[in-house]
Design brief:
Layout (H helix, E strand, L loop, with lengths): L12 E4 L13 H23 L3 E5 L1 E2 L4 E2 L8 H12 L6 E8 L4 E9 L31 E4 L2 E4 L3
Parallel strand pairs: 1-2
Antiparallel strand pairs: 2-6, 3-4, 5-6, 7-8
Helix pairs in contact: 1-2
Length: 160
């Protein structure tokens, strides 16, 4: 409302501070590669949860606490995300990103909006065929055979 992010998230939208990005024209260390791939896997987890539920939007460039628009730099590689989702789930989730300027004469930032469609009723829910890569701290966003759903303001594995 009036250009300000809502103070809450819901089943059809989620705020993210930034999207994973590679350092251009530089060799990445093994730790940087692991953390980049793990960060992408966290976004893929969210994409699959939205897809299996109602579809929705991820808005990049908004902090959680305090809730404010800070903007993003660079571009989100949506083609790479879509390919990775297909690799992990076998589903072709046709995501799209758009960028918007936010602010006034004194300060303007870019916000990225990632649209995730809802799974067609004719298809079974997307399930992870393999687990996510681990970060340098040993955390993985999801496990093989998990189904993820959007539950209110969170992405969660479905109970078995």
């Amino acid at each position: 409302p009036e250009g300000e992010p809502l103070s809450f998230e819901k089943s059809c939208w989620d705020y993210k501070r930034e999207f994973p990005s590679k350092t251009r024209n530089q060799q990445q260390t093994d730790t940087e590669k692991a953390d980049y791939n793990a960060s992408l896997a966290e976004i893929i987890e969210d994409i699959v949860a939205f897809y299996n539920s109602y579809g929705g939007y991820i808005i990049f460039g908004v902090t959680d606490s305090p809730r404010e628009v800070i903007g993003v730099a660079g571009e989100l590689d949506v083609d790479d995300l879509v390919k990775r989702v297909k690799t992990f789930t076998g589903h072709n989730v046709d995501c799209h990103a758009n960028y918007f300027d936010y602010g006034d004469e004194s300060r303007t930032v870019r916000v990225a909006l990632l649209y995730i469609p809802r799974r067609p009723n004719s298809l079974p829910p997307a399930r992870f065929k393999k687990g996510a890569p681990k970060s340098s701290r040993g955390r993985a966003a999801f496990k093989a055979k998990d189904f993820y759903l959007r539950d209110g303001d969170a992405c969660r594995p479905a109970a078995r």
